[in-house]
Hints:
Strand content: 25-35%
Order of helices and strands: HEHEHEHEEHEHHEHHEE
Largest sheet: 9 strands, mixed
Distance between the termini: 28 Å
CATH topology: Rossmann fold
Low-confidence stretches: none
CATH architecture: 3-Layer(aba) Sandwich
Number of helices: 9
Number of domains: 1
Helix content: 25-40%
Shape: globular
CATH superfamily: Vaccinia Virus protein VP39
Oligomer: single chain
Structural class: alpha/beta
Amino acid sequence: MPTGFYDKVARKFGSYHTPAKYSKKYPHGDPEEVFKNKLLEISGPEKVALDVGCADGRFTLSVAKYFKKIYAIDLSKGMLSAANKFKKEQGVGNVEFQIEDASKTSFPDSMFDVIYDRRGPTFYGEFFRLLRNGGHYLEIDIGEKDTQDIQKVFGRGQGYGKWDQSRLKKDIEELKEAGFKILYKEEFVYDEFYHSYEDLDIFLQGVPIFPDFDSEKDKELLEKYTKAFTAPEGIRLERHRIVVLAQK
Length: 248
């Protein structure tokens, strides 16, 4: 995703998070909690970590106390500006935010004990180079069936039409090719329920499901989706996540 999209979101909302109101229903567990628990299992006060695609840095700031130091990288100046603002407000001293191209970073070989990636870019060969022997790589990523229904209504979207191409299988194959050993893999399908049309609209403004989403131009399509997928809990949006833990 071009950095300009995230810069635009940072300017509009001040961070990666919109004020949209919604609830979630997890039939088989919360993938974000699973990801965080796995990360804490491989953390340690002597370990140096790398966050790939850190966005506004809120997650990394929340886990910084479990590591000696965390380097957090992104290409969006707007998101990194927000991250440094939150860092200053929270008084966190062991996190360093910086602009880096994840495909070819400036860090030396074997610098990190842990690399984690929350829906960021996945360059496994580079991650393998950066990890020390025995180091861990952890990711949570977007599954191929994520937001499939709304994309069908809109006739476009991120990953549109690729719903039969397993993201979990693809990532595992690429990790193994890079030299990693897979320690854990799981996928999670769950629902989000937006409290109102306005909440879903503002949510779509802040995420790259439709990078070109326009509240006015897409109003008819969003109204069509809302009519078809409104449940007692709210306007349903199906989500799909994968979590993978690997070791060098």
